[in-house]
Every structure is written in C-alpha cells, then in structure tokens.
Design goal:
It comes from Xanthobacter autotrophicus (strain ATCC BAA-1158 / Py2). The chain contains nine helices and eleven strands. By secondary structure, it is of the alpha+beta class. It folds into two domains: 74 residues, Arc Repressor Mutant, subunit A (Orthogonal Bundle); 139 residues, Endonuclease Chain A (Endonuclease, Chain A). It has an eight-stranded mixed sheet with strand order 4-10-9-8-5-6-7-11, with helices on both faces. It has a three-stranded antiparallel sheet with strand order 1-3-2. Helix 2 crosses helix 4 and helix 3 packs across helix 4. The radius of gyration is 28 Å and the shape is elongated. The C terminus is likely disordered.
Amino acid sequence: MDMEEKLAKIGITGKLFKLYLAAVELGEAPVQEVAARAGLARTTAYDVLERLEHEELIRIVERSGRRFVVAEDPVGMLQRLELRKQVITDVMPQIRSLYNRAKGKPQIRFYEGEEGINTVLWDTLTCQSKTLCGILSMNELIETPGLGEMDVYISERVKRGITLKVLRSRDKDVGQIWPSGLEQLRELRYAPDGMTLGVTQYVYDDKVSIISSKRENYGLIIESEDFARLQSVMFETLWSISTPAAPAEPPRKPAGGRRRAEKV
C-alpha cells in the first residue's frame, strides 16, 4: 500500500492529497506554484487549501500582497489524530447511550478477570448525573480490584465531582475505611443487621454495573433505562431503612501544639 492509499484511509484523497503533497514537497511557496505542482487550477486550489488549513496541515500567510502556502510539520498530524481519539473515547459512553436508547434494546457487556473488573469499575466514572448509588461488598473489593486500585479510583471520582451514596453491611466491613465525609463526597449507610450485601453494584444514569467476588472473577455492565430505574428504586428503598454511619472524626491537633497555643 503506497502513501496515497494510506492517507486516503484518514480522508486525505484526490485533490486534497495532491495539494497536500505539493505543499509538503515545496515547504513554503506561493499558492499559484503549489497549485501548478499539484496539477490544479488556482481557483480550484483555493477551496481545497482552505480545507487543508482547517485540518491544520498547512498555513496560508500573506507577504507583500501575495499568498503563500506553508506546510505544517507532519508530526502534528499524528498528534491531532491522538487528540481526536482521546476526545472520541471521552464522549463514547454518551454517544453509545443515545445509540442504544434509539435502538430501544438493552446492552449487556460481560468482562472476565482483574482487567475486566477494573474496566467495569472505571466505567462508573462516566456518570453524567454526578451521583453514584453503590452497594459495596468490602471483603471482595479489597481482594479485587484491591485497595491500591480503589484509592486511585476514589481520588479520580472526587476530582470529577461525583458523589457516592453507598450501602454496606457491617459483617462485610473490614476496618474503618471509606467513611462518610464531604471531603471524599461519600455518604455511607449500613444495611439492617442480618442483611449481607455480598456483591458490589453501582447504579448510575441508565446503567447498572456489577463486580463479583474474586472467586467468580467477572464484571458486568447492563445498559437499560428500565432495569436501571428498577435498581434505583430498590436501592432507595433499602437506603431508607438503613442506618447512617457516623462521619469521620477530624484529625486531632498534637497535644504539644495545644499547650503552645495556651501559653501564647
């Protein structure tokens, strides 16, 4: 496959390719010279050059009343493609949601292994409503994805301004971690005694994400407006009969610091 065929795959075809190649070969030249090298009339070339300029592949500058074409460094093309890929990746959850809603069919995605579980966990940060409703099985989360991954995830959740309403069962808790608090945008409640929440689940927008135990080792994302609404109602019902956890205590000042303050 030659260069023309390869560039055609990213939309640089026909007259666009001829003018771009002429501009790159000349580096900097008057519009008329670039058009002639590409085998195009100057009037035709202007329209095509405007598109190349819009794509930031060239610049058109004026000097002494004449218009010159200046080719941009081709490395910039790769950087712009990477930027476009990142932008598309960022908006893909919203676009897929609109697509699936238009089709009217629920989407179920199944992921296996630790990497799959991480994929499901991080998908929750695509939450557009900025509120996650979570049922957390602490024993399982500490095993997979693990405390290290969860700490990074929590930091990013807070950075994105996403609040977590979370239910846990006391018999699944391990230590005093992830308490209620404004700093980490978390409100914690404990399910009634005797009710064991053994699987982690998040409800957000029109999605329900499930993270299994390490033994079963899978993650699941169900994208369905009706199912998400049902799970949200069930969560709020359980939330209403659960016990609010005491907020985390602020760190105490060192005793020495208090004595110095009193002395002053």
